[in-house]
Amino acid sequence: MINSMTGFGEGQGRFNGVTYAVEIRAVNNRYFKTKIKLPEPLAFLEEDVEKMLREELSRGMVNYVLRLKGVPADALFEINEDALRVYIERLSRLGGGDTKCHIDIGSLLGLAGIVTPVLPDEQTAEKIKKTVLEITKQAIGKVQQMRQAEGTALVTDLEERCEAIRKTLKRIRARSEAVLEEYQKKLRKRVDGLLAEAKLKLDEETLAREVAVFAERSDISEEIARLGSHLNQFTRSCRADEQAGRKLDFISQEMLREANTIASKACDTEIVNYVVEIKCQIDRIKEQVQNIA
Fold it and tell me: Longest Cα pair distance anywhere in the chain, in angstroms?
């Protein structure tokens, strides 16, 4: 069964009194892309997190955020007080004499080398990694559940649209059989009228040849058969246990191509109107397919 690319999931866990909270938001995208936001001290986890996301979600734009709650300030960063003191002393000397010098400590903290993240030791880092990946797994599971639920709704909608196309295709098939007979009658009537003025007799062989040429030029039986085959393949792919997004996108393109060919070959207004209905359904299908993983 197909899955949607849209999903949301969250997970939460604790380690050493610190709460780790993960949020994952996935939306549709032609390829797999990630946007991962981690606290600076935990930047070393990015590669492991992206690997897990890629293995489990495979397609879509995935936004991943990890937040920490209840963390002591001294556990996140440290200030290089010696370097900060040197900056202040030098700035004070530059502002000596009668000139008043106002030093903004907040601005100084933004200078390189003043504030640095506190990196955990190897043993602690390994435990943090285990905790984060566990809650990431929880969040991914919720994303997948949401994707599956939306995928089920997508299948229902897509199958209904495919069935609507099949019904319209039956009308086209029935109409195409009548078009040739109508053309023959119109041609005979027109030629008889023209020949009556010249008092000539219609050559039946010539008429048959002209009708045969029209029949060959306007024959849409192959296109109807191919479009029907594409519809069957499309619905089978919707129910198959595979990632079918790209495949369904390709099939819908082929469906549109066959519909365009039918419209261009059919010399009949009624058939062209039916094709417009089919193309409207295919456009809706193509829109829905863009959100399938």
Answer: 124
